[in-house]
Amino acid sequence: MGSRVIAPLTFWLVRVSFLLTAVVPLMPQVAGAQDTGLVDDDTYVFEDSYVEVTWDRPWSFDEENSSFDESGEFVVLTDVPWAALGILDFPEIVDSEFARDFVLGGFEAAVDDVEQIDRGSYDDTSYSLDLLDSEGLQVGLFSLFIGHSNADLTSIYFFFAQVDNFSDSMVDAQENVEIDDKPIFDGVQPEGLQELLDDEADASSSVSSGRDDSDGYYDRTYDYGVEWTGDWVTEEDSILSSSSLTSDADLVLINESEFAIAVFSGFETGGLTPEFWVDELAAIMEEESEFRRGRVEAQIVDEDGLLIIFTGRLDSEPMVLLLELIMLPDAETAVAMLFMVSEQDLEEAVESLQSDITVNGDRPLRLWEDLEEDEGEDGAILSSPQTKRG
Q1: CATH assignment at residue 195
Q2: Residue 205: C-alpha distances to residues 21, 208, 237 (Å)
Q3: DSSP per position, 189-200
Q4: One domain, residues 247 and 185
Q5: Which domain-ending residue is among 152, 186, 206?
Q6: N or C: which end of the chain has fewer CB within 10 A?
Q7: 64 lies in the same domain as 165
Q8: What is the pLDDT of residues 123-169, one digit of tens each?
Q9: How deeply is 208 buried, as exposed, middle or buried, from its count of CB atoms within 10 A (0-12, 13-18, 19+)?
Q10: Are residues 315 and 181 part of one domain?
Q11: Which run of H or E residues covers position 301?
Q12: Last residue of some domain: 186, 206, 226?
C-alpha cells in the first residue's frame, strides 16, 4: 500500500496513542462551537464523508484530544471518568485487516503493556480486543475497522474503558452515541467482551508486575521474574520498615529472621556492558551512601553481570551492602539487586538468599563465590579494595 495511505494512517496512530492519556485520568472538556465539523454541542459532521456523529449525556466532545485539520479528522468523546471513544473516517477504502494490524501494531510499539485478547475479521470488517496496563490501571481497548466499498470510505472506532466498567460503559455508548442515526457498535455484545477482559485481567494480575499466589513477581516492563520461599516476605507483609533504598524499587523482600533486605529494580542499560557499569556504580555508591565510613571493598565483573561489595556503619552497626547487576537476554536491560544486611549476619543471610530466592530461575549472587574473603583487622570483609574482571 502506497505512502499516500500510510501517512494518514500514521497520523491517526499517533492520535490513538494520545487518546490513551485521556483515559487516566479522564477530565471533562468544554467545547465551543467549531466551523470545521462541530455543528453544536452534541453533533459532529465529517467534512469529507458527511458522516454525522451525535451523542447525549454523559458523553461529551473532547476538544483537547480531537483533531480536525488538513491531516484528517479524529473525533474523541469521553464519558468521564470511565471511558473514551475515538472515531475517524478514512476517505477511501482500505483493507480492514491491513488497517487494523498496521494501526494496532504501531500502537503496541508505542505503548507498553498491551495484551491481545481477541482479533478477527469478516466481510469488510475487522476487530480487536486488547488489554492495556496504564500506570497500574487495567484498561480495555475495542477497535473496529469497517470498509464501505459503496462509499469509498473506511470507518475506524476505538473504545477505551477501565476493565471494571467496560461492559457498562460500552452499553452506555450504544445507547447515547449514534453514527448516521444508528447506534455505535450496533450488534456488538459488551457482556461477551467483559468476560474476555475479566479472564485476561485475572490471569495477567497473577503474572504481571506484582505478587502472585506462589510468592512470585513478574515484571512485564523488563521481562524478569523473582520467586522466593522460606523466611522472605514482601515489604507489604513485613513488620519491619525498609530504608530509602526501596523508594523506586520494583520489588522489596525482607528476611525477618536475619534482618536482611533485598531490593530488585529493572532498568535499561543503553547497550552498555557490565564492564562500563561496574566503576560507575561503585563511584555512585561511595558518593551517595548514607553509611558512615562507607567504602567499596571489592568488585567483580564479567560479560553477564557484576557484583560490588560495599561496607560501612549505619547507626553504629557495621553493615554490608551488595550490589548485583544481572544482564537480561536482550542485552539492553538488566536487573539490579541491592542486598543489605548487618556484617555479623552476612554469611547466614547470603546462604538464605541463594537458597530461597531465584531471579529468572537462577540463584542470585552468582559471582559471590569468586571473591576471596579475607577479613581484616577493622572488620572489613577484605583487607584492601579488590577488583576482578572475568
Answers
A1: 3.40.1000.10
A2: 22, 5, 18
A3: -HHHHHHHHHHH
A4: no
A5: 206
A6: N
A7: yes
A8: 889 999 998 876 667 889 999 998 876 667 788 899 998 888 899 99
A9: buried
A10: no
A11: strand 292-302
A12: 206
Whether residues 45 and 180 fall in one domain = yes
The three cell numbers of residue 294 are 562507607
The CA-CA-CA angle for residues 29, 30, 33, to 5°, reads 130
- Which amino acid is present at 61? F
Q: State pLDDT tens for residues 51-66.
A: 899 999 889 998 888 8
Residue numbers of the domain that contains 369? 216-389
Number of structural domains in the chain: 2
Specify whether 191 is located in the same domain as 253: no
Q: Which helix (H) or strand (E) holds 87?
A: strand 83-90
pLDDT digits (tens, 9 = 90+) for 327-359: 998 878 899 999 999 999 999 999 999 999 999
Q: In the numeric block, which cell numbers belong to residue 182?
A: 444508528
Q: What is the DSSP letter of 362?
A: B
- The dihedrals phi and psi of 360, each to the nearest 5 degrees, come to 55, 35
Q: Is residue 211 part of a domain?
A: no
pTM score: 0.49
Do residues 376 and 273 both lie within one domain? yes
pLDDT classification of 71: cutoffs 50, 70, 90: low
Cell of 59: 458523553
Cell digits of residue 234: 514482601
Residues in Cβ contact with 312 at an 8 Å cutoff, skipping those fewer than 6 apart: 289, 291, 292, 293, 294, 295, 318, 319, 321
Q: What is the CA radius of gyration of the chain?
A: 27
According to DSSP, the residues that pair with 218 across neighbouring strands are 225
Query: Which residues on adjacent β-strands are paired with residue 88?
Result: 156
